[in-house]
Write a structure and sequence with these properties.
Layout (H helix, E strand, L loop, with lengths): L14 E7 L4 E11 L9 H8 L1 E4 L10 E7 L1 E4 L2 E15 L4 E11 L1 H7 L10 E12 L6 E9 L9 E3 L7 E8 L4 E2 L5 E3 L4 E3 L18 E3 L2 E3 L12
Parallel strand pairs: 1-11, 7-10, 8-11, 8-12
Antiparallel strand pairs: 1-4, 2-3, 2-6, 5-6, 6-7, 8-9, 13-14, 15-16
Length: about 240
């Protein structure tokens, strides 16, 4: 089970931080995985080694003046059962709650030691920037079972020159802040455009228009559920509600 925080883990006084700004309606969770330093841990039983091999610590958000901004302060290493564990990776989970459901996307940040850099021949230009930008999109679809409208969340780099899972030099990380700027781009779109018809009032799903199948010509429309409501159109619900 993940540790709730750094209590009883003897965290170091040297930290790095992750700052993130997220779009309205989104929330963020974060964790860090710690692994033992090569050659610095004593011999242990298999059960003990398993505890040490991958220690996940859930991160607590520091106080912020904005509900859409997150700051996490993360020790570079911790001490577990006399063994030093270094931060090996951090993980961000961006969540979208849309009233009648939720969805999420994840970001992974990896930390590489100087020895690992030499062995893998990782060059400076291959390391990640401290400033990361992500453009997020929402797609919607109707489930085959129950005809419920669901959404999916996907975030990608807005600069093709940046890798999606950046790598950072561990020895250079102390005292630094990694910044993530998440923004939403454009309007919601259907995950399977040919299964929907776009009208002046919004999108309508077709009868028989299952995922990746075509609408008929002329199209026949079906109803779907948004929460407990029976709906005809997205992003609204009832055609009678449209101006």
């Amino acid at each position: 089970m993940p540790a709730s925080h750094f209590k009883d883990l003897n965290p170091s006084n040297v930290h790095y931080r992750i700052f993130a700004s997220v779009p309205e309606g989104h929330t963020l969770e974060a964790s860090t995985i710690y692994k033992p330093v090569n050659g610095e841990c004593p011999e242990h039983s298999e059960a003990f080694d398993w505890e040490l091999s991958r220690k996940r610590v859930e991160l607590h958000r520091e106080k912020s003046g904005s509900k859409n901004e997150y700051m996490f302060k993360i020790p570079m290493n911790i001490l577990v059962m006399g063994c030093q564990l270094n931060a090996a990776s951090s993980h961000l989970t961006l969540k979208l709650n849309y009233g009648y459901g939720s969805t999420q996307d994840t970001e992974d940040l990896y930390f590489i030691s100087e020895q690992e850099r030499r062995e893998a021949k990782v060059q400076d230009e291959q390391l990640g920037s401290l400033n990361q930008v992500r453009l997020c999109s929402h797609e919607f679809y109707v489930t085959r079972l129950g005809s419920h409208l669901k959404k999916s969340l996907s975030c990608a780099t807005s600069d093709n020159g940046r890798v999606h899972s950046p790598i950072f030099a561990f020895e250079e990380l102390g005292g630094e802040t990694i910044t993530y700027l998440f923004s939403k781009g454009g309007e919601d779109e259907p995950s399977s455009p040919r299964s929907w018809v776009r009208t002046a009032a919004g999108y309508r799903p077709c009868v028989g228009g299952d995922y990746n199948s075509f609408c008929k010509d002329p199209p026949e429309f079906k109803r779907f559920k948004m929460g407990e409501r029976q709906c005809d159109i997205y992003p609204g619900c009832s055609l009678q509600d449209q101006p």
